[in-house]
Design goal:
The structure is a single chain. This protein has 622 residues and is of the alpha/beta class. It contains 22 helices and 13 strands. Strands 1, 2, 3, 4, 5, 6, 7, 8 and 9 form a 9-stranded mixed β-sheet that branches. It has a two-stranded antiparallel ribbon with strand order 10-11. Strands 12-13 form a two-stranded antiparallel ribbon. A hairpin with a 5-residue loop joins β2 (257-264) and β3 (270-272). The relative contact order is 0.10.
């Protein structure tokens, strides 16, 4: 094969060495008359598929980072080994994607230089291993962590518009090597097949925005209020979980609700603990080695007070943020003990923060006594009952009768034949679609979703209108004044000149407009202050955020207004879609025309060279 003009032989030789794992010059390769066979083309197609397969896994790996702390806890419970497995996952994925990407770039460069694609057997073996490893990862994800598939679906609402543009750009760049191969190859069947497949993929990509939806494609004035923050076991990235230090750190992050788990000791004292066993978050193996395998409820309160509930946080470093703690915070963390519910309620009362908790274990034979002990602690603490958010389903009717002021939070969606209206629901973020969140918001039902740690996920739920989110990263989400991106049409387009011819679409990085009214008062947790009324869940519309409200609007007018303003964001994204597709199509057309022109010049030069050589041979013979 002839080389393209401008492709120097040393570069071609280096590329050929790296791809084929043999040091032979491009000139010698040309003299041997080696060509790219059907088998070589098949291996190149396999390389391309492995690269895409690995790229998709990299996307999944980034998505599941939001929930990876749960995986670390699961491994610890099974193997008693604590390690941040997310680092291992990202490093392994980065190695695989880098290897396949380098091979793909080498193959494309060789094609542009007119060199044969002779992939070495070592690379073939490693590509097969890469494909098997990624396939095993996807299989394990589907078996043990199936809910992450729904997380990936939600992530597409945050990345869909950008993925569309990125993939269109990547496929557009592939037009250059495809055009080069088309004008060089003499196999008509293969050329027709590749062109048809490429055209089909591009048409599908050009039309893909028809199925892309995102709650963040909206006008700026339609952005819902920022969701309230619920501290998952406090602020577990800044302090040992379920401790008084964690509660105080959560208060410093403007968290409105402290979410925790309550158990009851053998002598009837409610205390904070998530795991059924004490091994992960205390030093029970050092203090009571013979009883370390017992459930938390088997210990009396005197024994529990002897345990250290903070040193594990400094030793195992469950989050990377532990390394940045100050000396004072480290000293304070090392002195943490297991707090009783009475101590936590007293701290919550003074901090004016609500508390939401689950009562564990629900399958315990003395669960009713656990409920009674918990209710007694609540009533004796003197905390305002509206600051208590009750999650347990067991004996809920009894709780309603004894403490009617406690807010009832349900861990399920509402039913069609609901006897009494639900005011608050607490669900995994994978279980609620954007449409359901909007409907619940319209019906004045407060929606809290857990566990939300990544800013991209928080942005999607913010745009969807969720009332609050439970998070481990309250210190990160606190600093977010707006979603990561918000695709809007510029409201000032009619009042100032624009540098582009489309509708001046832009990414919104400025904070949303301040609400018309600012209501006074402290934190009220999931209690919504709606249209100036403090009654939980009443009025319209509910902001889901303490101290903020909007003017009351009749539901029928608000619904019509939402349908009206939904038209403009669609037209804005439509313009971006059309421009991106048109630019891509023109670049592909330009690539084929340019390569065709270069091919004609090369063939003309080769013809002149052949004529000249013929004349020289004739003169030599004479």
């Amino acid at each position: 094969m002839a080389e393209l003009p401008g492709c120097c032989r040393p570069c071609a030789t280096c590329l050929l060495c790296l791809y084929s794992c043999r040091w032979i010059s491009a000139r010698k390769e040309k003299r041997k008359g080696l060509r790219t066979t059907k088998c070589d083309c098949s291996w190149f197609l396999f390389l391309f598929c492995v690269f895409l397969f690995t790229l998709v896994w990299l996307y999944f790996a980034i998505v599941i980072l939001n929930d990876f702390h749960n995986f670390n806890e699961f491994i610890f419970k099974q193997r008693k080994l604590w390690l941040d497995w997310s680092l291992l996952l990202l490093v392994a994925t980065a190695v695989l994607i880098t290897y396949s990407a380098v091979l793909l770039v080498l193959a494309l460069c060789l094609q542009l230089c007119g060199q044969p694609l002779k992939l070495h057997w070592v690379h073939k073996s490693l590509l097969i291993v890469t494909a098997l490893v990624v396939a095993a990862a996807f299989t394990g994800l589907g078996i043990k962590w199936a809910e992450e598939w729904r997380s990936a679906r939600i992530s597409l609402q945050a990345t869909g518009p950008f993925l569309h543009i990125g993939i269109v750009g990547g496929m557009t760049l592939l037009a250059w090597p495809l055009a080069s191969f088309t004008y060089r190859s003499r196999r008509a069947g293969l050329k027709v097949f590749l062109l048809l497949m490429y055209s089909t993929v591009m048409v599908a990509l050009y039309l893909s925005p028809l199925v892309i939806t995102s709650p963040c494609i909206m006008e700026e004035n339609q952005l819902p209020p920022k969701p309230a923050l619920v501290g998952h076991r406090g602020a577990p990235m800044l302090a040992p979980e379920n401790t008084l230090m964690s509660l105080h750190k959560a208060v410093g992050c403007d968290v409105q609700v402290f979410e925790t788990d309550v158990m009851v000791s053998a002598d009837g004292v409610p205390f904070l603990m998530h795991d059924e066993k004490l091994t992960r978050t205390t030093n029970v193996q050092d203090v009571f080695p013979e009883r370390a395998s017992l459930n938390s409820t088997a210990f009396n309160w005197t024994d529990l007070q002897q345990l250290d509930a903070g040193s594990w946080f400094l030793e195992r470093r469950p989050f990377s943020t532990v390394q940045s703690l100050s000396a004072g915070d480290r000293k304070q963390a090392s002195k943490q003990k297991i707090p009783s519910l009475e101590e936590v309620l007293e701290a919550a009362k003074h901090s004016n923060i609500s508390i939401m908790f689950d009562l564990r274990p629900e399958n315990h034979t003395d669960y009713q006594s656990f409920v009674n002990a918990t209710l007694d602690a609540i009533l004796q603490s003197g905390i305002p009952l509206q600051q208590i958010l009750w999650l347990p389903d067991g004996f809920r009717e009894q709780v309603k009768q004894q403490v009617p002021g406690v807010q009832q939070v349900y861990g399920r969606k509402r039913l069609q034949d609901e006897k009494e209206p639900l005011l608050h629901v607490n669900l995994p973020y994978q279980d609620m679609s954007s449409e359901e969140i909007r409907q619940y918001r319209q019906d004045n039902i407060s929606v809290n979703l857990y566990v939300v740690n990544q800013p991209w996920l928080f942005s999607v739920l913010w745009c969807a209108g969720v009332s609050s989110v439970t998070t481990n990263a309250c210190q990160v989400l606190k600093e977010m004044k707006h979603p990561i991106w918000l695709l809007v049409s510029d409201p000032c387009i009619l009042h100032r000149p624009c540098s582009v011819t489309v509708l001046c679409p832009r990414l919104l990085w400025s904070p949303p407009a301040v609400a018309p009214q600012q209501l006074s008062g402290g934190r009220v947790g999931l209690t919504q202050r709606c249209a100036g009324r403090d009654e939980p869940g009443k009025g319209w519309p509910c902001t889901g955020q303490a101290g903020r409200a909007v003017q009351a609007v009749p539901p029928e007018l608000a619904g019509a207004h939402r349908r009206l303003v939904a038209l403009q964001p669609s037209s804005t994204y439509l313009m971006i879609w059309i421009v991106a597709d048109c630019v891509s199509f023109l670049m592909i057309l330009w690539a084929f025309l340019l390569v065709k022109k270069c091919s004609k010049r090369r063939r003309a030069a080769e013809s002149e060279t052949d004529v000249l050589l013929t004349k020289i041979n004739s003169l030599m013979q004479e």
